[in-house]
């Protein structure tokens, strides 16, 4: 490892959507995320259905940790729970500063069949990662 380079990490969490979250809040979250993540060198994906968020964030450890602390305090969602925190050599999700996958607009795949839908509280770390890979490929094809 190059000691002069800040270390990269990947962080995945899920949360419960706040009951007073409106459709327009989603646009706000995405717009501010893109702007700030570009500034901070963070990339990732945000999955949303009417009940849950699940997000993957990749970037330098300090920036990702700082952002995660802010996210946990954001009143637009609650019960934020960490699924994965891992130091990485290379990013897997570097196509977007942030992109939003609205479910169930994204069609089902084997994870949906396995879990009976988008249920991040049941996802193993491995399946969360598989799911984000599926979403990334879907969004790239749809673009
Ligand atoms: C589900 C969810 C995902 C978010 N993702 C990001 C993100 O990727 N980047 C970001 O800058 N803010 C994101 N935010 C917004 C942050 O929680 C926070 O409002 C923003 O970073 C400004 O924080 P500050 O006012 O403490 O500086 C997200 C909020 C929610 C509810």
Topology:
Blueprint: E1 8-17, H1 23-40, E2 43-48, E3 52-60, H2 61-72, E4 77-88, E5 100-102, H3 110-115, H4 125-142
Parallel strand pairs: 2-5
Antiparallel strand pairs: 1-3, 1-4, 2-3
Bound molecules: flavin mononucleotide.
Organism: Marinobacter manganoxydans MnI7-9
GO molecular function: blue light photoreceptor activity; FAD binding
Protein name: BLUF domain-containing protein
Largest sheet: 5 strands, mixed
Secondary structure class reads alpha+beta
Helical content stands at 25-40%
SS field, number of helical segments: 4
Average pLDDT metric:
92
* Low-pLDDT residue spans: none
Strand segment count: 5
Give the SSE order as H and E letters.
Answer: EHEEHEEHH
Entry keywords:
143 residues, five-stranded mixed sheet, 5 strands, alpha+beta, binds flavin mononucleotide
Q: How does this model look, in words?
A:
Residues 8-99 form the BLUF domain. This is BLUF domain-containing protein. By secondary structure, the protein is α+β, with helices and mostly antiparallel strands. The protein has a single domain, classed as Alpha-Beta Plaits (2-Layer Sandwich). It has helices at residues 23-40, 61-72, 110-115, 125-142, and strands at residues 8-17, 43-48, 52-60, 77-88, 100-102. It has a 5-stranded mixed sheet with strand order 4-1-3-2-5, sandwiched between helices. The mean pLDDT is 92. The structure holds flavin mononucleotide. Flavin mononucleotide binds next to helix 1, strand 3 and helix 2.
């Amino acid at each position: 490892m190059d000691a002069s380079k800040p270390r990269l990490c990947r962080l995945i969490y899920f949360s419960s959507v706040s009951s007073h979250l409106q459709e327009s809040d989603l646009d706000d979250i995405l717009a501010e995320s893109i702007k700030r993540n570009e500034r901070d060198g963070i990339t990732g994906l945000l999955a949303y259905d009417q009940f849950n968020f699940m997000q993957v964030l990749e970037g330098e450890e300090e920036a990702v940790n700082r952002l995660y602390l802010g996210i946990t305090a954001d009143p637009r969602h609650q019960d934020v729970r960490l699924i994965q925190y891992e130091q990485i050599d290379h990013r897997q999700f570097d196509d977007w500063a942030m992109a939003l996958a609205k479910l169930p607009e994204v069609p089902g795949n084997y994870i949906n069949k396995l879990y009976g839908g988008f249920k991040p509280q049941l996802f193993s770390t491995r399946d969360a990662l598989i799911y984000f890979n599926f979403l990334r490929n879907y969004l790239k094809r749809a673009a």
